[in-house]
Structure formats: structure tokens, C-alpha cells
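assembly run, all chains below
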Amino acid sequence: MSSTFAIILTGILVAAACASLGCFLILRRMAMLADAISHAILPGLVAGYFIAQGPSLLAGFFGAALAGLITVGLVELLKNTQRVGGESAIGIVFPAMFALGTFLVSKYYADVHLDADAVLYGNIEFVGFDHWYLGETDLGPQSLWIMGGLCLINFIFITVFYKELKLATFDAGLAATLGFSPILIHYGLMAVVSITTVGAFTAVGAILVVALMIVPAATAYLLTDRLPWMIGLAIGAGAIAAVLGFGLAFMLNGSVAGAIATITGVEFGLALLFSPKQGLVARARRLARQRIQFAADTLLVHLLQHEGSPEAANESTISHLQSELQWNNKFAQRVLDLAQRRSLVRCQGQQLELTTSGRERSQQVLQLGRA
Amino acid sequence: MNTDAKPLAIHDLTVAYQDKPVLWDIDLSVPSGVLAAIVGPNGAGKSTLIKATLGLMPIAAGTIQMFGQTYAKARQMVGYVPQRSSVDWDFPTNALDVVLMGTYGQLGWIKRPSKADREWALHCLEQVAMADFAQRQISQLSGGQQQRVFLARALAQRAQLYLMDEPFVGVDAVTERAIISLLQQLRSDGKTVICVHHDLDSAPEYFDWVALLNVRMIAAGPMKTTWTPENISQTYGGRTQNLIRGAA
Amino acid sequence: MSLFDLFSDYTLRNVALGAMVLGIVSGILGCFAVLRRQGLLGDALSHAALPGIAIAYLLTGSKAPIVLLLGAGIAGWVGTLTINRIVRDTRISEDSALGIVLSVFFGVGILLLTYIAKRNDANQAGLDRFLFGQAATLVATDVLTMSILGGLALGCLVLLYKEFKLLAFDPAFAASLGFAPNRLGILLTSLIVVAIVIGLQTVGVVLMAAMLVGPAVAARQWTHRLSVMLLLSGVFGAAAGIAGTMLSLGQQHVPTGPMIILSLTAIVAISLLFAPARGLVWAKLRQSHALNHEPRNREAQPVKGE
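ok done. output:
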């Protein structure tokens, strides 16, 4: 297997493992908690190596996962004291954990292959070199096995607990009354996030883990309203970012992790601008269209309110729209055109009056507006 | 200042929140020296009306004038009491300091409150019987006491017109009586007070002027002539007729 | 290592002074971020500043602190506006928007820095010090730059103290008085970006979040007055800066940034546990006391929320 292929495949597997979990993190508003975990596992990793007396994979895994859970627990603890806001709690805990990790690394592992840069943006470039062997047989790159295994774990976790996750995400209260402990689901999700982060960050570093967890899921959230589609789209967006990011890094001779994060950002930017329903362009068009329709309704309601009253003659003139509703000439004319085209309003010289369908429409509008 | 002008005159006001209309073609003209209630069901747009009046929400159509001027010009004559739940009461400050914020509008940018401003703020606290709590951290106050601090802050604004958003929510009976006698005091001093109010029972007892609102203005005028079963049932969609006592 | 060494040795003095200036500025400005429940905004913006440093270098070829910090400031500001836009115009939550800006901007920064590093450009060495900060490399002009920037930011805060207090406590009331809370908010965030820019060289992007949040949270426990909280927060920040410098320079291989953060964490922990009125230890003692004795007068209990 060529090392290029191994790098790209690892990237795709990391993307799939992260993006699927990310959907739940986005919906549960825990993006920054995932960021905190990704930094806070460093001391756990070091402690694991310390206990195993060497860079042991398994010990590192356990230490880091434990550190992730401790972080989540500490944040909850601080929040529950009522002395600290939730976001400040995160802002205190994870830098402390990361600083502790950096301190331990620099103090005891200054010569070992574990430098803080690698923690932040990983070494995906080298994943082709570390192979696993069973006896004499070459099993292929180690990171492929790790990320493949994590993908499988996450896939199983989401499939088995799909109903519970969905319920706890959208209606924690209902989940609790139905007997699914939201706390258990919370910590379960955080445990999976922690081990995914550990597995992924040796390959791509803490920041890319966060980018791949949050950004593709947010992109998917702008594109669809259905959770299964969102998960699928997020994985797709992450995988595409992995492939294109590798190409970009190759072109610029820069960091693959940084390039993949950049591409996830480009994808998000495109969705932000051009998503058919949620995009900024579609939104601006919809608002402009609604503004004129809404203005027409305002005109109908205005005419209805004053219909038959003594001041009606004065309130229903075209010039009144400009002076009292504060519409400029052009806008008032556009509104009037729309109302007349739909034969909701009749013009009698300077006087405006409702047609029968205009009266019905305005009464309808008032009913709908009511809470 | 045009002394003939109404404290508040709203004409053809329409307000939309993003793309959802909340208030339709509101006409409202409140005379000077009344204690007015804005009454209506949940979601009728009562708070929105206050917020639009104070320029806290963009308006889609219509005009709002206070004392014959736009709000930007009449600002100094208007006092505002937001809902108590709209702020974090764990903020590191004491009651006197909150009341002092009422003077900030007249001070303008950068200038700091003087000793005279402090004395004035203390005087305003006295008027709501909270002078003893001037140095008390605000999270240590009860809900009713917090509400009184908010009222004192509005008094510190030295306004002619007061807009209050649900001043009676979550307060104890003592505070409720204290607030209503304060409002009556303001009225007899010639000020105008407009409150968002949701309790139908106490409305006719506390207020002498009423605006019945449900997305559009149903009726507005003196309590005696406006507080009729027809108007109320029209405001509440006929659902709560049996809840209403004291309707004319 | 003693306090005397710290101020007699030229290098040490610069490091300690730099860390102290950072502690004061970020401590004071951080109070407003914490009170406005924007504790993590600083984290997102410090990461967002990284590509600004790389782009500033690519455009000018200069490594002058002021050029790089200007780039960082502009990038941080673009990050702020992006977050605001995402939160205002989409259904994506603020928490997610922070995470998106943080990771994407940082990714772009890493991509550009590694690109620069591999161009065989001998001049570029040292740009990566902004990642973790290298307080040990601070020289007198750096400290001067930091002091001027920080002084300007704090001057602005003193001038608009009344307005910022009102904004943090009751933005709607501020708006009703005509104090344009949106613009005030952007100004306040810009001042926080200045604090971040000051901190990048000393503690780096990752740990900057703690410099804004930590001193403020610690100071809040000791006082009920905003002015006292601001002063205490500045003092705590400065103390953490000096303590971190002393702890790190006494031994080999130990970087200053993490030691500053660990000192700060100790201050936060002590404050949360032992501060007179709000300390958790006293609360716990009071609780067990109340359980053992008659229920106390309820009037004295704080009443929160509705």
C-alpha cells in the first residue's frame, strides 16, 4: 500500500469517525466541550506513558480517555457550584489540563517523541511508516487499524443508541421520564468523543479533530433537517475535505491537518452562502420577498382597521402610506402594484379600498398572526 | 417641548420579528396623567409594543411619537422598567449602583455620576422604601426588592412618561401594594405611567386607562368605558370570559 | 531563584514584566467577557488570530512585532464578525459558531505557517512561537509594545467604564438610554482582541483563554463590587504572570506559558474554595451546621432568579 493512499484513507476514516459524532455535539450545543476534551487529554496521555514506562498505545488510550472524562466531570462540577458560568468553567478547566500536560512533557519527556506541536496539529504525513506486524506478516499501517476500529465503535454506538441519543438530544426531559438517563447518555457520548479524539489526534492533532467533529456537522446542519441525512452529509463533507485537503497540502507543501481544516471551512462557507433553505443568499431573497408581501398585508390590515370609520377617507389615501406608514415613494408603489395585481385593493382616484378577497385576506392575516 | 402633545402617540405601527409579524397596524394615543395598562393574552405582543416604542426593535411601518417628538429626541423624558428576569442578578454590584444607572442617560457619554447624583439615587431608593438596602449586593435581595430597585432606577431617570414591563410579576403582596401606591403618587405628580399587565382581576382596580391588545389593538381608552365584557372577550378570543371579574 | 534575581537580571526582568503586563490587561478586560457570559470568545479569537500573523508575514516579509500583532488583531476581528454573523443569521448555536471559527481559522494558520516554514526562508524562524508563546524570548521593545497596547486598551476602558458596566448588566436598558449596545459590544470585543494580541507572544494561542477567564472568575469570588473585581482580577493576573515566570526560569526545559496558567489555576482554586463570602468550603460548613441545628432565618438567604 502506498503511503499516499494510507494518508488519504486515514484522513477519510478520521473524518467519518469524527463527523458522525459531531452531529450530536452540534445539536446538543457541546462543540466547545469537544474542543476542551481535545486539549485536555494531553496530561492523560502523558500519565499513561508514565505508568507503562514508555509510549504504549493502550496505556496512552486509557489515560487520555480518562482525562477526557475528568475534564467533562470537572466542568460539570464547576457549573454546579453556581459560582462560575458554563462557558467560563470550560475556559478554566481545559487550559489548566493542557498546561499540566505541556509541563509534564517538557519536564519528563523532553527527549521522547511527543512534542506539543504534534499534539496540536499531528503528523498524518508519517502514518504510512508505522506498520503493525503479526509475527512476520505485515498488517499495514497502524493508524488505519486504529481509525478503522474507532469508526466501527462509533458506528455501533450510534446505531445501537440512536433512539436514545436522538431523544436525549431533542427532549432531555422526555428521555428522563421514559427511563433513559440523560446523564448516562451524556457521559457515554463524551467517552466516545474522548477515545475518538485520542485515536485521531496522534494522526491529525487536536485542532483537526475539533475541525472534523464540528465543521462538517455544522455544514450538514445547514443543508438538511433530517438527522440521518445530516449524519450522512457530515461524513461525506468530512471525507471530501480529507481528500481535497491532502491535495491542497501537497500543492503548498504545508501541513495536511491544517489543509483539511481549511477545506472544511471552505465547505462550510459555501453552505453558509448557498444552502437552498438556510443559506444567506436564499435568506436575503426570502426576506426581500416576504418584506413586500408583508407590506401588502400591512396595507390590507390598515385599510380594514379604518374601514367605515370617520377618518377612513383620510387614512386610505395613497399619500397617507408615505406619510404615516413611513414608506418611501418607490416602495409604496411596489406594494400597491402587488396588491392591485392580486386584486386585493381597488384604486378610486386617490382613495384605496379593499376588494372582497382583500377583506378576506386581511381578516385571515389577523387570525394567523394571533398566538 | 410641546405641552399639548400626547405623552405617547402611536400611529399605524406594524412590527415583525424576523419574518413573523407580531403587531399589526397599531394605533394608540395615551393622554397625559393616566395610569395605563396594556392588557392581552400571552403572545399578544405587549412586551414587543414597549420594546418597539423604546427603539429596541426595528419597526416595519408606522410612526411613534412621545411628547410630539421621536424617541431619540424625547429619550430624557422617558423612564423604562424592563422585566426583572431580563438581567443576571448575580452581577457584582449593589442596589444603589443599579439605581445610579438611571442617571446615566442624562449624564451622556463618558461623564461619571457626581455626589449629587448619588444623593438623588439614594432619595429614589427611599421612595421605594429600600434605602436600608442601598449597599446590599443585588443577588441578596428578594424578588420584590429587586423589582423595587428597578422602579427606583426608573425614578432616577426623572422622566415624564414611564414604560414598565410586567412590574408585578413574581413580587410579594407588600411590594405589590408599595408599587401601586408609588404609581398613584406618580400620577398625582402629573406623570404618565404605562404598564404591561397580565392579571385581569387587578387591572380595573389598579389602572384608570387601558389598551386591550392582541396582535392588533382591540380597544383603548378610559377603564370605565373600555373594560367591557365584549372588548375583553374579543381580546382573549372568548375563551376566558368566566375568569373575568369586575368588568363593566 | 528569588524575587531579587527576577528584577536584577535583564532577561528575567523583561519576561516577568511582560507576563505581568499581560496578566493585568487580560485580567481586567476578561472580567467583562466573563460577566457577559462570553468566556470562550477569547479562546476562539486567540486561535483566529494565528492566520493573521502568517498573512502579515507573507505580505510584508517583516517579523516586527507590531506588524505581526496588527495582522493578528485584524484576523481576530474578522473572527468576531464571522461568529456574530453565523449566530445572527443561521440556526447554528453560538457554541458551534465559536468552535467553527476556532478550528477553521487555526487550521488555515497552521497551513500557512507550515507553508512558510518549508519555503527555505531563513528569515521565518520563530513565527511558531505564537503557538505556545515563548515568554523567554521577550525583549525590552516587546514589553514596551505590550505596555503601550495594553495601556491604550485600559485607557479606553477607564473612559467608558460606566457604559461598559451598563452594557454588561442590562443591555436593553443601555439601548433605551441611547448607548448603542451593539457598537459598545464590538468595541469591548476589540479591546479583548488587543489583550489576546498581547498574550500571543507570552502564553500562546492555546492558553490565552485562561488568561481572560481565570483572573476574573477568581476575583469574582472575593467581592460584590465591579470596580474591586476589576482591580483584583488585574492583581491576580499579574501575580500569576510573575509566579509562572519564577517557576519556569528556575528549572530546565520548563516553558513559561504553562507555568503561568498553572499558577493561575491555583489562584482560581483557592478563591473558589476559600473566598470569604462565596467560598465553597464555608458554604459546605454552613450547610452541615444548618443540618445539625435549627433552620436559620430564611430572610438572610440570597434569592436567585425568579
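The interface with chain B takes residues 35, 37, 159-163, 165-166, 168-170, 172-173, 175-179, 220, 223-226, 228-229, 302-306 of chain C (CB under 8 Å).

Residues 296-306 of chain C have pLDDT under 50 and may be disordered.

not gonna interpret more than that til we talk
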